[in-house]
Each structure stands twice: as structure tokens, then as C-alpha cells.
Amino acid sequence: THRICNAKAIFYFVQSNFKYLNDPLAFEYFKTPQESFNTVAGDCDDSSILLSSLLRSVGFQTRFVFVPGHVFVQVKIPEAISSYKDDKDWINLDATCQGCRFGDIHYSYANSHKEYLE
Fold first, then answer.
1. Among the listed residues 39, 41, 50, 89, the one whose alpha carbon sits nearest the alpha carbon of residue 72
2. Which residues lie across from 76 on neighbouring strands?
3. Coil, helix or strand for 93?
4. Beta 85-87 vs 90-93: how paired, if at all?
5. What percent of the chain has pLDDT over 90?
């Protein structure tokens, strides 16, 4: 459907254009979506905030998934094919994982304890 195409386009846009850049060692800083969009660089929380904001701006329901030392986004698309889905209707979107496709997360997080924030 067009919703899946829209979600894919937004995910691949962020993944392709956003450069991973750690926060300074002294502190954790969460960029606003506007800051991330302007600098096109940041860490996993910055890319997740940007990706979630872009998806929500066009009507998608999203949530953050926290695993030890990392965060990524899930988007809820009930009509998506099951191979994309991780948890019921939720699809993993890890924009900082350069080898990951729509629906994938890095294998090192697959069995990690996950906490969710909508």
C-alpha cells in the first residue's frame, strides 16, 4: 500500500542521509528534529527522534525501542506483510544500522531486553 511506501521512503531517506556522530563524552545531548535535519548528523537517539517525528508528521504511530546502549524506532503498520513485522503490527526501523533494511535490526540486538516508549 502507499502507507508502506511512504514509511519506507522516510526510513531510507534518514538512513541514507544521516551520518552517525557520537555525543561528546562529557554529556548526553538529545537534538531536536530540526537540529538533526539541519546538521544531518548525530547518534542513535538523534536519528530515532528525527525518524519518529517525520513518520508521525504524516500520520504514523511510532514508538522508541531501547536496548542496552542503543535506541531505534518501530512503526505500526497493520497492513504490512508479516516478514516486515517484529511484534504484532510493529516494524523495526534502525536508521543508524547501515546494513539494515526496512524491518531489520542489527543481529546483536535481536535477543536483547527491549523497553518501549510510545
1. 50
2. 61, 90
3. strand
4. antiparallel
5. 79
The dihedrals phi and psi of 86, each to the nearest 5 degrees, come to -105, -50
H or E element, residue 20: strand 19-20
pLDDT tens per residue across span 26-83: 678 898 999 998 988 999 999 999 999 999 999 999 999 999 999 999 999 999 999 9
Three-state SS string over 30-85 comes to CCCHHHHHHHCEECHHHHHHHHHHHHHHCCCEEEEEEECCEEEEEEECCCCCHHHE
**Residues 118 and 85: beta-carbon distance below 8 Å:** no
Tell me the C-alpha distance between 26 and 12, whole Å: 31
At residue 114 the predicted structure's pLDDT band, cuts being 50, 70 and 90, is very high
Q: Hey, which residues does 74 pair with through a beta bridge?
A: 63, 92
Q: Cell digits for 107?
A: 543481529
